[in-house]
Each structure stands twice: as C-alpha cells, then as structure tokens.
Amino acid sequence: MLKPAAGRYPNRTLITACTMLATTMQAIDSTIANVALPYMQGSLSATYDQITWVLTSYVIAAAIMTAPVGWMAARFGRKNLFLTCLAGFTITSMLCGAAQSLAQIVVFRLAQGVFGAALVPLSQATMLDIYPFEKRAQAMAVWGMGVMVGPILGPTLGGYLTNAFDWRWVFYINLPIGMLAITGLWFVMPKSDSNDSMRFDWTGFAALALGIGAMQMMLDRGQDQDWFASREIFVEAVLAGLGCYLFLVHMMTAQRPFIPPAVFRDRNFAAAIVMMFGIGMVLLASSALLAPYLQNLAGYPVYEAGMAMAPRGFGTMVAMMIAGRLGGRFDQRILMAIGLLLLSGSLYVMSGWTPDVSHSELLVTILVQGFGMGLIFNPLSVVAFTTLPARLRGDGAALLSLFRNIGSAIGVSVTSASLAYNTQVSHAVMSEVATPFNPLLHGNSAVARILDPMTTHGAELLNQLIERQSQIIAYNDDYRIMTFLTLPTLLLLLLMRRPGAMTAAAKIEAHAAMD
C-alpha cells in the first residue's frame, strides 16, 4: 500500500501519467507483434508453426506470472516491484528487437512476458489507491483506456512500424516509453512498505503454473493438432485440470496461500471476475476475427484494414470518458447493462455481414461495439473494488487481469476452432451440389462453361467460390456465437451491489488507506 507524506498525493497527475504509460505499453505489446510475424519468419528462417512461439511464449509467461503479483507487491513493496518490472520489460524488449535467431527471440519474449505480467495489475492498484472513492470512476476510465485501446491499436501501430522501418521496431519503440515511465515513477511515486517476513507459497504457485501453462499450450496448439485426436492435447488437458484442481484444494486448505481465499468471498468482486472472463472471451476474439475478414474476404489492404478498425478504439475511449463522468450520478450496473446490450447488438449485426458490407455500416457498427465495451469495462473496474478491502486490492487487480487474459485465450481458441470447423462443414454441404448433374453447371450458358466441374480450370474456380462462401458463413456463425456468449453476463448484474451502497466498514478502510 502506498504511504504518501501527510496523507496526500501532490504528484497524483504525474503518477497517473506514468502508470498510464506503463499500462499502454504492455497492452499494445500484447498484439503489436502479430502483423510482424511474416517478416520475423523470413528474417529468422523459421516455419509458421515455429514463429508463432513468439506470441505463445509471451502469453504463457504473462498468464502464469499475473497471479502472484499481489503477493510480490506486498513482499517487496509496490514501487520496487513496479520499477523492476518496468526496467525488465524495457530491457527484454530491446533484446527481442536485437535477436538473431528463433531461440533467442522466444527466450527474450518469455522474459518479457514475465516482467510485463505485473504492469497492468500494479497500475490499476496504484490508481485505486491514489484516488478517493468518489473519483475512482474517472480514474478507472483513464486507466481503462490504456488496457482496452492498447490491444486494438497494436496491430495498426505494428503494421506502420514494420512497413516504415523494420519488424525490430515493434520492440524498440518500448525504449523511450519505458525510460520515461521509469524516470517519472522513480521521482514521484511514494515509497511503499515491504514485508520481509512473508514466505512464498511455492506449492500453490507450482500447481497454478501447471494448470495455466498446460491450458495455454492446449489452446494454442489445439487447432493445429486436431484437438483431442492428438495425444499431446489430451495430456495437456489432463495436466491443466489437475493443476487447477490442486491449486483450488491447496488455496482452501493452506494456512497462507499466495492468493487469499477472502478475495473470492466479496460478492461484487466474485461476480466481476466472472463477467470479466466472459467479456474477455469476446474482447480479443472479435478483433482477431475482423482483421482477416477485412483483408482476406473484403479485399482491404493491411493499412486500410487497420484504419477501419480504429473507430472501435475511439468508441471505447469516448464511452470510458462518459462513464467516468456519470459514475457518481448513475448506477454503474445500468451503464454496464447498456454496454452489454450495445455489444451484443453489434455482434448480432456482424453475424449478418457479407464482404460487400458498406463502409459506413462497417464503421458505425465497429464504433458502437467499442462504445459498448467502454461502458462495460470502466464501471466493472469500479464495482469490482467497491466493497473489496484495501489490503486485497493487489490480489484483486492481478486476478481481474488473469481472468481477462484466460477468457481472451479461450475466446480466440474457440472462435478459431469454430471458424475452421464450420468452414469445412459448409464447404462439404455446398460441394454436394457442385457436380456435373447440376443443371446450372452444364449446358451452353456462360456460367456453365466457366464453372464446368469436368474441366481443371472450372473445378478449381468452383472450389474457390465455395471456399469463399464457406468462410463467410463460418465468420457469421462465430459472431453469432459471441452474441450469445455476451447476453448471459447480464444476469451477473443481479448479483452485484450498487457502488453507492458501500458499507460503513469499507468506507472507513478506504479512507484509512488514503491517510
């Protein structure tokens, strides 16, 4: 917990700016390398399966190291941990850019994920501490912009840097940002206490690392390995289930687990992490599907596809600013309900798209989708910590980030698997009528001569048309799935208490934390 002199934060604006730099840098880095993978593949002489480890290694390391952030902040002090992780993230970013082989960049990305895992939860916990209760909605609006907009703008920025300079600059860009954030926090962030008597729960961490690591491996490699037809995926699924089970048993029975069970007893927080998991499944998957849809089916160039997705980030920022302003006047649950309805409505509209969708409809739908996400994310961050004791904020922030990341990983894997499966099914169904016996495909008509399945050229062209239509149907099915994933989360709002109904004990503890 931060301990400012005289109970005040005279440098609150500078602390906010520096923590936002750290948050945005980490959030952008989760997606900025995606568009540069083909360039890395050629430069490092790697296959497609091998180069994806650049993404997988980062995701796995970040997921595993997110959970113990609360314990590490209490043990070593939040400021010390924050500065160490910022320095480590910046240095490993430079090492990634300077990597000369596949093995080097995978190791450096692994280390980058280890240091980057703590940046988002530490920045959130810091923002919650330096702002009083009545201003937390605005603080979470500012903080949430970095978390939400970063992954959306990452591919656009990565594409620009790769085209204008080199793929290595998607990592080098972190140097000036990291140095500025480190310098600012070094001088303006109050020193925090450390607890040398704390001992790390290695048993609980090992079980959780096994569960999360095995699950990430299963999700990342499942599609390539044909899921449970592969022995590897089956083993990883068993290890994931075993690790999570052992962790839960250990957490409930150990005297001092590194994640205190008390954090799950808070009703608002428990409902919030479940909702964050559900929204996380849609957050990254919807963006990951839209980019290839625009490029491969709608014919957008890479840069124009990135620009077409920009309104989503703009809508998110506007909604967060509005939610921050209205947070003290309106029930946060109402704002989240409106956001969930807007999000599900935009996904339903996208489930009926074809590649010739008008540019105006595309921009408006994406803008509304981003606006809905902003109305969800900011109030959710406020409600989650309304009744949670201040001593548990570090653990709560880490768990909220962890559940969002796990939800995103599962969402991307589920939609990718569904896309591949539904494409194959639709292709098989339409191929049943693409035969010489179809009256439309024989005769003297121009269509019959061009698409004659009895000729090599006609059969190939017909297969391309069927494949294109199959992909359109599969994308529509994926967006329909995400629509029905979003709607059930509305029920979680019934479990949450209104932020204004903060208990007297929570208010006393919150004011004590500020003094």
What does this structure look like?
There is one protein chain. This protein has 515 residues and is mostly helical. It has 3 domains: 1-200, Growth Hormone, Chain: A (Up-down Bundle), CATH 1.20.1250; 201-257; 263-412 and 478-515, Up-down Bundle (Growth Hormone, Chain: A). It is 73% helix and 0% strand. It has helices spanning 12-29, 37-43, 48-51, 53-66, 69-76, 78-98, 102-116, 119-130, 136-164, 169-172, 174-188, 202-221, 231-253, 267-297, 302-308, 310-326, 332-350, 359-384, 393-431, 446-450, 456-486, 504-514. Helix 5 crosses helix 6, helix 8 packs across helix 19 (393-431) and helix 16 runs parallel beside helix 18 (359-384). The chain is globular and about 85 Å long. It starts with 11 loop residues before the first helix and ends with a helix. 49% of the residues are buried. Mean pLDDT is 79; it is low at 501-515.
Element layout with pairings:
Elements: H1 12-29, H2 37-43, H3 48-51, H4 53-66, H5 69-76, H6 78-98, H7 102-116, H8 119-130, H9 136-164, H10 169-172, H11 174-188, H12 202-221, H13 231-253, H14 267-297, H15 302-308, H16 310-326, H17 332-350, H18 359-384, H19 393-431, H20 446-450, H21 456-486, H22 504-514
Features:
mainly alpha; about 525 residues; Growth Hormone, Chain: A
Which fold name corresponds to the CATH topology of the largest domain?
A: Growth Hormone, Chain: A
Bin the strand percentage: under 5%
- Poorly predicted residue ranges: 501-515
Largest β-sheet summary: none
Helix content: over 70%
CATH architecture of the largest domain: Up-down Bundle
